Amino acid sequence: MTHRWLIENGTFVVLEEGRSVIQGYMLIEDDTILYIGETRPEGEEETFTYDGKGQLFAPGLVNTHGHAAMSLLRGYGDDLSLQVWLQEKMWPMEAKFTSRDVYWGTALSVVEMLKGGTTTFLDMYDHMDQVAKVVDESGIRGVLMRGAIGLCPEDVQQQKLDEAIRFAKDWNGKANGRITTMMSPHAPYTCPPAFIEKFVQAAHDLDLPLHTHMSETASEVAQNVEEYGLRPVAHLEKLGFFTRPSIVAHAVHLNDEEIERLAANKVAVSHNPGSNLKLASGIARVTDLLKSGVKVSLGTDGAASNNNLDMFEEIRLAALIHKGFSGDPTAIPAEVALKMGTIYGAESIYLERVGRLSAGMKADFIAIDTEQAHFLPRTDYVSHMVYSAGPKDVLHVWVNGEQVVKQGNCLTIDEERVRHEAQACFEGLLAR
Ligand SMILES: CSC[C@H]1O[C@@H](n2cnc3c(O)ncnc32)[C@H](O)[C@@H]1O
Ligand SMILES: [Zn+2]
């Protein structure tokens, strides 16, 4: 049986050329948006209607870089630089993570993301079967990959690669198509060149995109030059990384030539402003990247370097910091910031039918409660969404046509249990 329903009296964020918001109707059948427009679709007199008065309907937010299970380490290592944070705080704790920790840590993140309006997230981590299980059970959409650090003997590297390949094959297209997969060596400074080349080859063989951390800190770039005689962009290009569809996280320290190389190779960039500010990594050249034609989207990174998974915050940071940094108030206008958190995000992770409210797209959308002081007056809802809204304004969330959040509560996950188990996992990690 098909499930067909019509939202009426709604305000819809369409982000189209010439008009960003419309008042009207959206018709949904199963997992797909059939119609969106200002006039009531004909022949739908018998269709179930939902009154959207006082609600702003927007595409679900798309988080293009993170490590969900790291929510177990939120607040465990603050106010440190990337390398100290990784080597002295994160990696020793992550070495103790079990599958159970990854399951509950990921579930904790998915609760936070869904309730905050994120309907799709990219995740690079270990024990990825557990992450996929949470995605399957919760109804969220996930682009998942086994991240691999190659600072280990060759036989261990091979095990990690085999596992990454096995995971990518097993889960691609699963959970009613809500899971897709990528191949992901962690970073040029943690993966020897030959190891990265094997990931590139596997991505070719499996016809999958690639993802990695790149040029996040100045010292990482200097180290790359010292070790390999090349900056990270040229290094990855030499290893064939950009011969595949690819998205790199951070890309903070780029020169003009590197921006051109990324644009020429159609490499997408996941900009993570919150994490980059907190780890004092720097501010990415987002205005220049966009000007050169690079697709830039937004990510939170893990909750241990952010310290939340609030995509409204990343959208707002993107709209604010580039103005402050450049002295140009027109840098990253609100509409561009919102596109980075929605449609550019979906395009960057190769999801063709996600990120926009229009006919034929997947029914991944959120309803924001605009009957609140900070949404008045009704001047510009894109502006309000970027500069005024927050995760607590999200009333309802649908992914693939299924409602997963209703009146601010998760329908698919037992939030109280998740909070209890996540705390127990953290205490267990401390005790081991
Ligand atoms: C191989 S699993 C993912 C790996 O990435 C680490 N990580 C988390 N945040 C960052 C970041 O900002 N830069 C580099 N690496 C990061 C995480 O701790 C896992 O070990
Ligand atoms: Zn990361």
Automatic annotation (TrEMBL):
<feature type="binding site">
    <location>
        <position position="301"/>
    </location>
    <ligand>
        <name>Zn(2+)</name>
    </ligand>
</feature>
<dbReference type="Pfam" id="PF01979">
    <property type="entry name" value="Amidohydro_1"/>
</dbReference>
<feature type="binding site">
    <location>
        <position position="65"/>
    </location>
    <ligand>
        <name>Zn(2+)</name>
    </ligand>
</feature>
<feature type="binding site">
    <location>
        <position position="146"/>
    </location>
    <ligand>
        <name>substrate</name>
    </ligand>
</feature>
<dbReference type="GO" id="GO:0050270">
    <property type="term" value="F:S-adenosylhomocysteine deaminase activity"/>
</dbReference>
<dbReference type="InterPro" id="IPR050287">
    <property type="entry name" value="MTA/SAH_deaminase"/>
</dbReference>
<feature type="binding site">
    <location>
        <position position="213"/>
    </location>
    <ligand>
        <name>Zn(2+)</name>
    </ligand>
</feature>
<dbReference type="InterPro" id="IPR023512">
    <property type="entry name" value="Deaminase_MtaD/DadD"/>
</dbReference>
<feature type="binding site">
    <location>
        <position position="186"/>
    </location>
    <ligand>
        <name>substrate</name>
    </ligand>
</feature>
<feature type="binding site">
    <location>
        <position position="301"/>
    </location>
    <ligand>
        <name>substrate</name>
    </ligand>
</feature>
<dbReference type="InterPro" id="IPR011059">
    <property type="entry name" value="Metal-dep_hydrolase_composite"/>
</dbReference>
<keyword id="KW-0862">Zinc</keyword>
<feature type="binding site">
    <location>
        <position position="94"/>
    </location>
    <ligand>
        <name>substrate</name>
    </ligand>
</feature>
<feature type="domain" description="Amidohydrolase-related">
    <location>
        <begin position="59"/>
        <end position="404"/>
    </location>
</feature>
<dbReference type="InterPro" id="IPR006680">
    <property type="entry name" value="Amidohydro-rel"/>
</dbReference>
<keyword id="KW-0378">Hydrolase</keyword>
<comment type="function">
    <text>Catalyzes the deamination of 5-methylthioadenosine and S-adenosyl-L-homocysteine into 5-methylthioinosine and S-inosyl-L-homocysteine, respectively. Is also able to deaminate adenosine.</text>
</comment>
<dbReference type="GO" id="GO:0090614">
    <property type="term" value="F:5'-methylthioadenosine deaminase activity"/>
</dbReference>
<comment type="similarity">
    <text>Belongs to the metallo-dependent hydrolases superfamily. MTA/SAH deaminase family.</text>
</comment>
<feature type="binding site">
    <location>
        <position position="216"/>
    </location>
    <ligand>
        <name>substrate</name>
    </ligand>
</feature>
<protein>
    <recommendedName>
        <fullName>5-methylthioadenosine/S-adenosylhomocysteine deaminase</fullName>
        <ecNumber>3.5.4.28</ecNumber>
        <ecNumber>3.5.4.31</ecNumber>
    </recommendedName>
</protein>
<feature type="binding site">
    <location>
        <position position="67"/>
    </location>
    <ligand>
        <name>Zn(2+)</name>
    </ligand>
</feature>
<keyword id="KW-0479">Metal-binding</keyword>
<dbReference type="InterPro" id="IPR032466">
    <property type="entry name" value="Metal_Hydrolase"/>
</dbReference>
